[in-house]
Amino acid sequence: MLARVRVAVLDMAGTTVTDDGVVLEALCAGLRAVRIALEGPRFPALRRQAEATMDRSTITVFGELLDGDMHRARRANAAFEACIAEQVQAGRLREVPGAWDAMCTLRAEEVAVALSSGFAPGVQDAMVTALGWEDMIDLVLCPADVDGRGLPDPAMLLAAARRFDACPAEVVVAGDATADMVAARRAGAGLAIGVRSGAHQERALRAAGADAVIDSVADLPALLGLPCRSTDPAQAESSRSSGVRKRGVTRTGPR
Q1: Which domain, by its residues, includes 160?
Q2: Are residues 66 and 125 in the same domain?
Q3: Which of 14, 87, 112, 116 could covalently link to 176 via disulfide, CB atoms 3.0 to 4.6 Å apart?
């Protein structure tokens, strides 16, 4: 391993989860809820702004998109969350290939696995449950768990370190967005690993502070010098559904 790692904080959308456009659809649903014309001249700029910032708290993103009008932002965010929940129920979320095996490897090597996102707690928990990851995740984190302080604020990463009595230098952060890298640097994380599978390109990730950039979260164990623990698909499905180690989703703070 490159350093002693006790905690791995992994981003969700774009890093461990492939959403097939679900997040963008939900964004559009939110904007429609506050009567932003998606075919209007303003929408292309709004879309670019949203795509550049969706690694942050969604309520914060809508606030910025709507010029600080938080009343409309809350309405938009409610519609966004409803759309995400509907798509989760429809089974449209998929794990990034190899994410399950990567998490198995980390936990087998006694590295705690935490998932972070900018989603609301209920949405994030529903995603974890739909993917069958409840037994594989030691902790889930979102801005609501740390007084609304989403990325690039380091609060979620520091909360993960505290939860496992680790110092920040013993935390590795993996994410597809520059905000993940900035938060890792601000937290004093031991490693900030950029992932090419999502929002931002390698150059931007490195400029934001990435120590290394990998193609996929599936490559993280190898980067850390850990043995690959590939899981047979049938065995993985049995593990997901058996409930042998079922603990439910653990959060750091009040729901």
Answers
A1: 7-18+93-242
A2: no
A3: 14
Structure tokens at 88: 């989760």
Give the span between the Cα atoms of 154 and 138, in whole angstroms.
19
Distances (CA, A) of 202 to 38, 133, 166, 173: 30, 28, 29, 16
Question: To the nearest whole number, what is the mean pLDDT of the chain?
Answer: 85
Range among 4-8, 23-27, 48-52 rated most confident: 4-8
Classify burial at 240, counting beta carbons within 10 Å of its beta carbon; exposed 0-12, middle 13-18, buried 19 or more: middle
What are the pLDDT digits (tens) for 80-96?
Answer: 999 988 988 888 889 99
Question: Do 128 and 55 reside in the same domain of the chain?
Answer: no
DSSP classification of residue 196: T
Task: Record the tokens describing residue 114, joined without a space.
Answer: 């935490």
Backbone angles phi, psi at 195, to 5 degrees: -125, 130
DSSP H helices in the chain: 22-33, 43-53, 58-65, 70-89, 99-108, 121-130, 155-163, 178-187, 202-207, 220-223, 233-242
Query: How do beta strands 171-175 and 139-141 pair?
Result: unpaired
Is 114 in the same domain as 234? yes
The count of domains in the chain is 2
According to DSSP, residue 170 is labeled G
Where b means 16+ CB within 10 Å and e means fewer, 10-45 reads bbbbbbbbbbeebbebbbbbbbebbebeeeeeeeee
Residue-level length of the chain: 255
Q: How many CA atoms lie within 13 A of 188 on its CB side?
A: 8
